[in-house]
Amino acid sequence: MRRLTRLWRRSIQVRVVTSTVALSTLFIGATGWALIADVADSLAATRRDAAAGEVRLAIASAQSELDATVEATPAAQVQVLNSLVDSVTDTEGDAGYELVLEGPLGADDVPVRSSLALSRGSVPAALRRTVVERDGTYAAFSRVAALGSDESHPAVVVGSRLHAPRTGDTYALFYLFSMADQERALTLVKQALVLGGGAAILMVSGISFLVSRQVLNPVRMARRIAERYAKGELDSRMAVHGEDDIARLSTSFNAMAASLQSQITRLEQLSILQQRFVSDVSHELRTPLTTVQMAGGLLFEARDRFDPVTARSAELLKTELDRFEDLLVNLLDLSRFDAGAAHLELDQVDLVEMAKEFADDDWNATGLDVTVLGADEPAIVEADRRRVQRILRNLITNAAKYSGSDRLELEVGQVDDRVSLVVRDFGRGITDEEARHVFDRFWRADPARAEGGTGLGLAISREDAHLHGGGLRVYSRPGEGTEFILTLPRVPFAEGGPAVDQPAVRPVFE
Ligand code: ADP
């Protein structure tokens, strides 16, 4: 069932063919039904009128035969009527009708004589009442069955009264004309309609299938080409045949693809130029910076001998030169990421062990009180040790610099395919708006702060995490604290699957 609904939702062709078949079935069914009703009505009416005409003549002749017996005995009169019925019996159905004679009327138990033993109800009660009560010829439709037989067939029953002049008795005479021929004709019409209708529906569904395929094939091709394009095959184009609407669509599609391709190529070249510019500038600046740093270092060493203002300048020079160096190193790193030139040097890394090392005093020069959680079993991932250390160092120094917290939790959590490492402080926290930007390049919550870094640390950490096929997320509550969760897959880019970003631990500040 689910597959069918999926097919219905996804395939325009299935929808077009199904609705065409449904609508044409409805239309053909309704027309056929109306046609059959019409044919049945006119067949019945024709038969009834013909039968009524025939009966009027027959009744007139029977009445004149009866009238002729005015001088005869009552028994002779009954004899005339009986022989009328018997003559029909003798033809064994060849007369085209059966006869039912009821009478003399008036008595409680009216004698009935019929040319064939018929089941009760063959003469409709309403018709009998009318004929018994009034003069004239009346007709009605009924189903007639021989007595004891289950098989019945439609018939038109025409009845009229007869008056016996000698005794003054009244008789009702009914003629039952079979309508089996009309029924057969109607069956034939029905069969022809079912066959014709079925063929028409088949033809319509075939046509709608072919037409929708003709229209949809190019659309499907456009979809395939667009998918390939999205995957980066920018040379993909649609085939153009003829000059119809589809061909024009393909041409426009191709023009769009070509324009996009040239824009993308232009942007790519621009971006390559930009990357090269950043990396060249950073490289070029390094040499003079080293010289300036050396000179600055010397001034810094000798600051005790300067007057206080010059000594302070020497200190400022040193800090700003260090920051400058950081900036250059970070810029070079980022340009390497942008150029796709960053590579992993893989190693078996135990994140529990690494967290413990960072918690150690030797590593932890931040003065924070660090607790390690979730350290009961090793958490091994295949990763680039240097990069993971860099992420962790950055997160811990950030917490020390910006959070205002005096304690820090490092929590390791693991599931089948990934390991998460949480760096959680209990400091000032950041707002949702700030959280949206922390990973942006050069973004700093408070750029005016002197001890601030370059605003590139978290951007680089996230690139490092992505390089592993992992992720770095932030959760925070202002006034309560902030946690950064690094999640790494056990194996980088496991089976080419999507990046593993969902943390393996529950965030506290979610
Ligand atoms: P940098 O440290 O070089 O300024 P980052 O990218 O490492 O750059 O950090 C960006 C900004 O995010 C910081 O300037 C700081 O305002 C904010 N930030 C980072 N970590 C925390 C934290 N633990 N608590 C509060 N703010 C933080």
Task: Explain this structure.
The protein has 11 helices and 12 strands. Helix content is 54%, strand content 17%. The two termini are 39 Å apart. It has a 5-stranded antiparallel beta sheet, with helices on both faces. The mean pLDDT is 89. Strand 11 and strand 12 form a beta hairpin. It has 510 residues and is an alpha+beta fold. The site of adenosine-5'-diphosphate has 22 residues, from helix 9 and helix 11.
Q: Strands, helices and their partners?
A:
Blueprint: H1 2-10, H2 12-67, H3 74-90, E1 97-102, E2 112-114, H4 125-133, E3 138-145, E4 152-163, E5 170-178, H5 180-230, H6 245-301, H7 308-338, E6 346-350, H8 351-359, E7 369-373, E8 380-384, H9 385-403, E9 407-414, E10 418-425, H10 432-437, H11 457-467, E11 471-477, E12 481-489
Parallel strand pairs: 7-9
Antiparallel strand pairs: 1-2, 1-5, 3-4, 4-5, 6-8, 9-10, 10-12, 11-12
Helix pairs in contact: 2-5, 5-6, 6-7, 7-11, 9-11
The structure holds adenosine-5'-diphosphate (ADP).
Give me some keywords for this one.
510 residues; five-stranded antiparallel sheet; five-stranded mixed sheet; rod-shaped
Order of helices and strands: HHHEEHEEEHHHEHEEHEEHHEE
Give the integer mean of the pLDDT values: 89
Low-confidence stretches: none
Q: Which percent band covers the strand fraction?
A: 15-25%
The count of helical stretches stands at 11
What's the gyration radius in Å? 52 Å
Short summary:
With 510 residues, the protein is of the alpha+beta class. Helix content is 54%, strand content 17%.
